[in-house]
């Protein structure tokens, strides 16, 4: 094939879109950033470590509220109090009262905290459903602009959280940021997949994940104590995502709209050609237009596909199940468990400042995702996914063995450490970035928005399930928890091996044909056209 056309406009556009993913990463990472976290609170919710800085602020607000209540109400309920309180019996002794007061406030703080964390995930789950729909209604660029409004509002609420009732501002800010991240997790992969030339689709698609892990890393660095992780500055830390939001909004005004959207959805061939010429940097865009015309002919037969139709219609069922499996594989592979455990493992291994080791994991995260950008067009998606999963399987077993023998052999903690670093690097070569853009490749223009919505939703939901359940599973299984993950990873590896087709360098139609080949349901009228495609793809 001819060399890919990397043009200034393409680079600029993909960079701008990826700023959205960067904010997504920053918002994920920022909650576990401040340093006191790992030492003060042992309860950890997934990899959002308890943020003791904010918690101490909650405590401070609460203590004032509790003082007020004592003074005014003689221990009865204060109706204006915006926190759920337990009415105290008047005749209880002051000692028990004080005890009740502390347990009450601790459980309250824990509850508020869980709310700050889960409100983000719930926001993401809800919004991920609407990402594709919004992109269809407004166009990809306008949809991302509208999403940025949410990001800004969320950031401002959190940035100014010291001025008002902080817990309410933080929880609402987090949920609005969650809404933004949910929209973005569907919109960015869709937009990048639609503007990228076929030969670069994978490499550019991986940039979504690269931007996410960069965001996580930056939030970890900025969250160090001596930068912004301290008492005086945490609200700035939470509100900082406003900066990329504003930057992205400005840059989006100069980005070309997705030619596929213009041509296939709006029937604006002239505008689509203009957009393509900008993206490809040449006046000859016939190849792209021809491919889009074929897609359009297919799409005219299939109107906008609803989410239910993806499962009922036999030609979509196979790809949507595979797509959901890839996303489940990403979340259930134990990557969050690794992050959850990393601090304690680094402490056991005698790393004096575990927070730096965690940042090290973040950096490795980034390096290997960057590596994947280059590998994904050379090695292919399927093989990278399989390599990544197999590597993670081995690492999970080593991890478990290391954790079990930890008390008998001191050097086992180093084995576990190495296993962490390797596990993360294998994850970022395959299962990390690939599900996001592979789903966009599985579907033609008609079902793509619905498919991406379902995929993003399943990703968020699985993330939420892991976040809620992991601490209980970890308590129950102890060090054997990674054997469980190894089993899960093995199952997904086998599924990938038998069911997932290679999509590298194929047009969207050839990919659809691949799936029909996998299910072995070639439909009679399409058979001739399909044979032609298969013939074409065999000869490549």
TrEMBL record:
The protein's role, per its UniProt record: Facilitative hexose transporter that mediates the transport of glucose, fructose and galactose. Likely mediates the bidirectional transfer of glucose across the plasma membrane of hepatocytes and is responsible for uptake of glucose by the beta cells; may comprise part of the glucose-sensing mechanism of the beta cell. May also participate with the Na(+)/glucose cotransporter in the transcellular transport of glucose in the small intestine and kidney. Also able to mediate the transport of dehydroascorbate.
Limits of the Major facilitator superfamily (MFS) profile domain: 13-504
Highest taxon in the source lineage: Eukaryota
Parts of the chain that traverse the membrane: 6-26, 47-66, 111-131, 143-161, 167-192, 204-228, 234-255, 320-343, 355-376, 383-405, 411-429, 450-474, 480-498
Protein name as it appears in the record: Solute carrier family 2, facilitated glucose transporter member 2
UniProt entry tagged with the keyword Repeat: no
InterPro entries: Glc_transpt_2, GLUT, MFS_dom, MFS_sugar_transport-like, MFS_trans_sf, Sugar/inositol_transpt, Sugar_transporter_CS
GO cellular component terms attached to this protein's record: brush border; plasma membrane
CDD domains reported for this sequence: MFS_GLUT_Class1
MF terms (GO), sorted A to Z: D-glucose transmembrane transporter activity
Membrane topology: Multi-pass membrane protein
Keywords from the named record: Cell membrane, Glycoprotein, Membrane, Sugar transport, Transmembrane, Transmembrane helix, Transport
A biological process term (GO) from this entry: dehydroascorbic acid transport
Catalytic activity: D-glucose(out) = D-glucose(in); D-galactose(in) = D-galactose(out); D-fructose(out) = D-fructose(in); L-dehydroascorbate(out) = L-dehydroascorbate(in)
Subcellular location: Cell membrane
SUPFAM superfamilies: MFS general substrate transporter (SSF103473)
Similarity-based family: Belongs to the major facilitator superfamily. Sugar transporter (TC 2.A.1.1) family. Glucose transporter subfamily.
UniProt-listed Pfam families: Sugar_tr (PF00083)
């Amino acid at each position: 094939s001819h060399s890919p056309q990397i043009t200034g406009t393409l680079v600029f556009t993909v960079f701008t879109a990826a700023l959205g993913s960067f904010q997504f990463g920053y918002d994920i990472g920022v909650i576990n950033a401040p340093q006191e976290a790992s030492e003060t609170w042992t309860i950890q919710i997934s990899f959002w470590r308890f943020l003791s800085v904010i918690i101490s602020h909650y405590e401070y607000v609460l203590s004032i509220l509790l003082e007020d209540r004592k003074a005014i109400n003689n221990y009865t309920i204060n109706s204006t109090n915006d926190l759920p309180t337990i009415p105290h019996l008047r005749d209880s002794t002051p000692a028990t009262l004080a005890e009740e007061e502390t347990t009450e406030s601790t459980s309250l703080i824990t509850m508020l905290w869980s709310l700050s964390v889960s409100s983000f995930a719930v926001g993401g789950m809800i919004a991920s459903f609407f990402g594709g729909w919004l992109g269809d209604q407004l166009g990809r660029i306008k949809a991302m602009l509208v999403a940025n409004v949410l990001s800004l509002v969320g950031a401002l609420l959190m940035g100014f959280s010291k001025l008002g009732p902080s817990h309410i501002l933080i929880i609402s800010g987090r949920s609005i940021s969650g809404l933004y991240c949910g929209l973005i997790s569907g919109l960015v992969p869709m937009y990048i997949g639609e503007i990228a030339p076929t030969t670069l689709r994978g490499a550019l698609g991986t940039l979504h994940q690269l931007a996410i892990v960069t965001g996580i890393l930056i939030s970890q660095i900025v969250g160090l104590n001596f930068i912004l992780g301290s008492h005086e500055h945490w609200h700035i830390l939470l509100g900082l995502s406003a900066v990329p939001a504003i930057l992205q909004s400005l840059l989006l005004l100069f980005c070309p709209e997705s030619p596929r959207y213009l041509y296939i959805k709006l029937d604006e061939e002239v505008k689509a050609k203009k957009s393509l010429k900008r993206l490809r940097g040449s006046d000859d865009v016939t190849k792209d237009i021809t491919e889009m015309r074929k897609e359009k002919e297919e799409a005219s037969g299939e109107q906008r596909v609803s989410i239910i139709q993806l499962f009922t219609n036999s030609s979509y069922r196979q790809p949507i199940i595979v797509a959901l499996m890839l996303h489940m594989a990403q979340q259930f592979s134990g990557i969050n468990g690794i992050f959850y455990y990393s601090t304690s493992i680094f402490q056991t291994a005698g790393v004096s400042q575990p927070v730096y080791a965690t940042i090290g994991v973040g950096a490795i995260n980034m390096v290997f995702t960057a590596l994947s950008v280059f590998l994904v067009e050379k090695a292919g998606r399927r093989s990278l996914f399989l390599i990544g999963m197999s590597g993670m399987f081995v690492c999970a077993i080593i991890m478990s063995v290391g954790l079990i023998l930890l008390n008998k052999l001191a050097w086992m903690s180093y084995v576990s450490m190495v296993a962490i670093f390797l596990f993360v690097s294998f994850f970022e070569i395959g299962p990390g970035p690939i599900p996001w853009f592979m789903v966009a490749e599985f579907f033609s223009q008609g079902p793509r928005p619905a498919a991406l919505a379902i995929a993003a939703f399943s990703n968020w939901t699985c993330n939420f399930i892991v976040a809620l359940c992991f601490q209980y599973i970890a308590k129950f299984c102890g060090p054997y928890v990674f054997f469980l993950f190894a089993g899960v990873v093995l199952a997904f590896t086998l599924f990938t091996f038998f069911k997932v087709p290679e999509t590298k360098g194929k047009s969207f139609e050839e990919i659809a044909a691949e799936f029909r080949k996998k299910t072995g349901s070639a439909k009679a009228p399409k058979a001739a056209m399909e044979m032609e495609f298969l013939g074409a793809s065999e000869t490549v």
